[in-house]
Amino acid sequence: MSKLSEDFLWGGAAAANQLEGGWNEGGKGVSVADVMTAATHGLERRITQGIEENVYYPSHQASDFYTRYKEDIQLFHEMGFKCFRTSIAWTRIFPNGDETDPNEEGMQFYDDLFDTCLAYGIQPVVTISHFEMPYHLVTEYGGWRNRKLIDFYLNFCEAVYTRYRTKVNYWMTFNEINMIVRKPWKPGGIQWNDGENKLQTMYQAAHYMLIASAKAVKLGKEINPDFMIGGMFLHPTSYAATCNPDDVLAQVKKLQQAYFFLDVHVRGKYPRSYYRFLKQHQLEIETAPEDELILREGTVDYIGFSYYSSSVVMANPTDQDKSEGNEISGYKNPLLPASEWGWQIDPVGLRITLNWLYDKYQIPLFIVENGLGAVDTLEEDGAVHDPYRIDYLRQHVSEMKKAILEDGVEVIGYTPWGCIDLVSAGTGEMKKRYGLIYVDKDNDGKGSLKRVKKDSFYWYKECIKSQGKII
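^ 6-phospho-beta-glucosidase, sequence as received from the core. Prediction below:
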């Protein structure tokens, strides 16, 4: 066999806060993404206290998908998408997050969006919370450091599950849930107080989010037993720097520390290594008596994950250069090339990751993010030539196929990030482009927003048409 099954979900991925724009239209409230500026001169994106005047916020217009979604979905259809992974902006449904009743105008927008997808035979794959929680929940409740957010989140889940129960089958509870213990602002709305124990706060918030996820899975199954509800995980693929057992052990420990999220998602309980970690760092996580049962009853149907690059782990770090990546710390692998942003390109690492995850958990996997950020040039003749992106995607699809056809890994689908140019989550830039469709807009927010098919658009179209045979 050289091609994948007919029911394999080829598609593309995006997130509301990076694509939609329309930040204050249709009754939408302010999200945590809406108060993030673009990064300048290599510095971190600044988080402002509310919306400041004369400040450029990339998410406010983003790629203007809010008004152009019909045009964009038609282009997705032309590529042959079987699915489109996106998110529902929490603040379109509950502008402040703590309301009782949803905002009808926001609900109708997603009705229209999903109807458009379905009219073209494209299944929506929906992340419920993707780095766009209401800013009001930060200022009034402290973000996910507060257990009260579980109820607000579940109210959001109930509203969208119920409204779209016949339109959306594939759901994910949180985007890259393990980001809460890495960069807690975007997933958790957490800013630090003076003297706060950061590790304690992050792991407490992680527990609340895992409880919320489990309750959301159970709730979704009650509303529609046919729902496929997964978790979504940033996979920190890494290798030991040498065959020194100390380096190998350091790499094992790094994965253990990350995998506790998946252990809870899939097995419904924390692993022993998690409790050892808490003890080692003198962390005491507040739990409720019912939490153990909640986790056990809310296990996921599949694992969605992001994979872009890999890194190296060493027991005794040297002056070796740090490796850049999707919010992942590590060291550079001298055997691998890197992108313009320093992310190491490792297609075989995707096959390794698929094998690790499937061997460990034995449930279906879904590659919901994979792609190359690069500077693309719009030529005078209107073309965008991106052979580097085609090469990246070709190699990763090839390794995915080997994992499925040769190794026996069960993979639901593949949705490269992002199918259309959008705002970079890490930097707020537009010039760091991932899309197969070019959007005419620069880092200062200037441009016509015209859509242009890149060479990778046509490559992916043939890949999908041949079920991955022609790559």
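The chain has one domain: 9-465.
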